[in-house]
Design the sequence.
């Protein structure tokens, strides 16, 4: 009898479904930076519901402080994107609010003021930010489990792994080799710059020597002409004296 009462007190898993909430996940290089639960007043304990109400929650993403989700990247518009979530059908859709730098879903730019349904695994990019954003549903028990905090399973995100001694030596040797390569490239560039400077100085000296030689030749020609003219005048005077 007690077993029957306990079975009556427990919810039927086949008829009842645990409530789910939408999550706005922020990623960078495949790693999760932040999970934002799109729920104004989350309950303290998981809730099982028997019927879903037909309503749609609307949230706005942008740089303006009045937005539900505030993103501070300068390329994101003040009111950039609107999110529509339907708890009954667990559907998510977005509308670009005529943003300046646009919005992308799985690499495809979406048209402004056009509602686009999101599929599972779709990633969004807003403006020129390198971060990616995902919208998906998770059970509310998983979202507010303090002992096991929610982290979305992503194939691209690799967990941090401590290096052992050999890997540390390899990384140190690679870093030292990169430093040596940088120093070598620096000295090569320095030598090339010095050789260029010396070549320019040599060209300047050669040009100066050519100018000096040209000036000397011109002066020599001028002196020769002056001497010739003087001799010519003296010879004429001598001839005139002899004729007299």
Sequence:
């Amino acid at each position: 009898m007690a077993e029957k009462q306990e079975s009556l007190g427990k919810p039927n898993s086949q008829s009842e479904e645990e409530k789910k909430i939408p999550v706005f996940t922020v990623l960078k290089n495949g790693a999760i930076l932040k999970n934002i639960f799109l729920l104004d007043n989350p309950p303290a304990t998981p809730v099982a519901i028997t019927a879903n109400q037909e309503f749609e929650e609307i949230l706005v993403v942008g740089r303006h402080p009045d937005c539900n989700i505030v993103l501070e990247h300068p390329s994101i518009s003040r009111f950039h994107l609107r999110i529509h979530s339907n708890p009954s059908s667990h559907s998510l859709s977005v509308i670009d609010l005529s943003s300046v730098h646009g919005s992308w879903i799985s690499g495809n730019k979406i048209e402004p003021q056009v509602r686009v349904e999101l599929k599972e695994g779709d990633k969004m990019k807003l403006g020129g930010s390198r971060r990616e954003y995902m919208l998906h549903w998770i059970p509310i028990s998983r979202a507010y489990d303090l002992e096991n905090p929610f982290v979305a399973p992503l194939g691209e995100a690799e967990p941090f792994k401590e290096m052992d001694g050999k890997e540390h030596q390899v990384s140190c040797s690679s870093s030292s080799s990169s430093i040596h390569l940088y120093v070598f490239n620096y000295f090569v560039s320095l030598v090339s710059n010095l050789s260029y400077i010396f070549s320019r100085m040599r060209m300047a000296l050669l040009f100066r020597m050519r100018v000096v030689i040209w000036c000397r030749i011109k002066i020599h020609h001028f002196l020769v002409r002056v001497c010739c003219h003087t001799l010519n005048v003296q010879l004429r005077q001598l001839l005139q004296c002899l004729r007299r």
The first helix runs from residue 2 to 9. The longest strand covers residues 20-28. Residues 1-15, 40-53, 151-172 have pLDDT under 50 and may be disordered.
